[in-house]
Write a structure and sequence with these properties.
This protein is of the alpha+beta class. The chain has 3 domains: 106 residues, Butyryl-Coa Dehydrogenase, subunit A, domain 1 (Orthogonal Bundle); 99 residues, Butyryl-CoA Dehydrogenase, subunit A, domain 2 (Beta Barrel); 152 residues, Butyryl-CoA Dehydrogenase, subunit A, domain 3, CATH 1.20.140.10. A hairpin with a 2-residue loop joins strand 2 and strand 3.
Length: 390
């Protein structure tokens, strides 16, 4: 297949995002109910290059600067967290193309609508070395964007040794790649929030995967550029934090609209005219703005180092880790405040605050939002050896 080429400047995508954001906003209830993006919308976004934003240019990707990508992500987050989540998940994973065998990367992204989804392995997962590749077994969960994905990436531990005396060249975890029809999709995604991500599970039963369709997930990148010098976990964290901040900002806008028309029972005063409301709104605005500024500052420092030096300090990595976690946790507080201001009207599905409330509290349960990352930062600040993933 021939490689698709897409524009590589941020101005193009910022202009193109507007109509897509409007379509996402209009389809938000359908996305939530059907637990997926509308196929025509996902296809059109793929055709417009929105799943190739971080893909190397050598593969027909835009290879945008990561700060530019976050601008686009924040726009989609205000319309629907699930779509924004998939955009981040699928685009960040596309940076792994720079670590795959080059021919395999061209095979996958030679398809114009290519999207790769992935998910963490369960304890049942194991890749056994055999002649020419691996035999793969197991179940993987939380594969966001499964419906519109074309390929599946399975991270797996590798068994020591193998059949016919075959051994793995590296006994650490590997990522094994398969066209989606080669796996069994399992629908365990019955949640209260982020339903539209379609984060289904998949099973693999004794499937042979050729060596050239596998790679070490943290191996060296063959593509140049600062984007591929940043640990993928931090790219995920920054993007998901940006989604959370977008949800929080939109929740405040919803609460402002409710406050201008809602008169609490027996109060005789509009919600907006109550001092409690005014104080709550002011505090929530400050929380969201401060968390966003912290994330932008930490991310900016790290990005500048990646661009100018090609290396990152531990301080820069940990600062971004804690800033992303803080943005997610603080966004939840902001959404809770907005939800409370909406009163009894907020409990109904017809109020858009309800979906944001549910989405936000699923986001906080993701590993990128766990409190343990504060401990990592604390260890580093106290002069201890920091533990964790950063």
């Amino acid at each position: 297949m021939t490689t698709t080429t897409v524009p590589t400047n941020i101005a193009h995508y910022l202009d193109a995002a507007g109509p897509f954001v409007a379509r996402v906003d209009e389809a938000a209830d359908w996305i939530d109910a059907e637990r997926q993006m509308p196929p025509d919308l996902a296809g059109d976004m793929a055709d417009a290059g929105f799943f190739r934003l971080l893909l190397p240019r050598d593969l027909g990707g835009a290879q945008l600067a990561h700060p530019d990508f976050l601008q686009i992500l924040e726009q989609f987050a205000a319309a629907d967290a699930s779509v924004a989540w998939c955009l981040n998940q699928n685009n960040v994973f596309a940076t792994s193309a720079a670590r795959m065998p080059v021919d395999t990367a061209h095979l996958i992204w030679g398809e114009p609508r290519a999207v790769v989804t992935n998910g963490p392995p369960t304890r049942s997962c194991l890749a056994t070395p055999v002649e020419g590749g691996y035999r793969l077994n197991g179940r993987w969960n939380l594969s966001s964007g499964s419906d519109h994905a074309t390929w599946i990436a399975a991270l797996s531990p590798v068994a020591q040794g193998g059949q016919n005396g075959a051994t793995a060249s590296d006994q650490g975890p590997r990522i094994l790649l398969m066209p989606k029809p080669e796996v069994n999709i399992v629908d365990l995604w019955h949640t209260a929030g982020l339903r539209g991500t379609g984060s289904f599970s998949f099973d693999v039963d004794d499937r042979f995967i050729a060596e050239e369709r596998t790679y070490i997930q943290d191996g060296p990148a063959w593509a140049d550029g600062p984007l591929y010098q940043i640990p993928r976990t931090l790219l995920f964290a920054t993007g998901f934090a940006t989604v959370a901040l977008g949800v929080a900002r939109k929740s405040l806008e919803i609460a402002i609209g409710v406050g201008q028309s809602r008169m609490p029972y027996r109060s005789g005063v509009l919600l907006r005219d109550q001092q409690t409301t005014q104080r709550t709104m002011g505090e929530a605005h400050a929380q969201q703005s401060s968390a966003r500024a912290f994330l932008k500052e930490a991310h900016g420092r790290l990005w500048d180092s990646a661009c100018s030096k090609g290396t990152l300090t531990i301080d820069e990595r940990i600062q971004l880790r804690v800033a992303a976690t803080h943005a997610i946790r603080t966004s939840a507080q902001v959404v809770d405040a907005a939800y409370t201001l909406c009163g009894a009207s907020g409990i109904f599905q017809s109020n858009p605050i309800q979906r944001r409330f549910q989405d936000m509290h699923v986001i906080t349960q993701h590993v990128q939002g766990h409190y343990v990352h504060y401990e990592t930062a604390g260890q580093f600040l106290m002069g201890l050896e920091p533990q964790g993933v950063f």
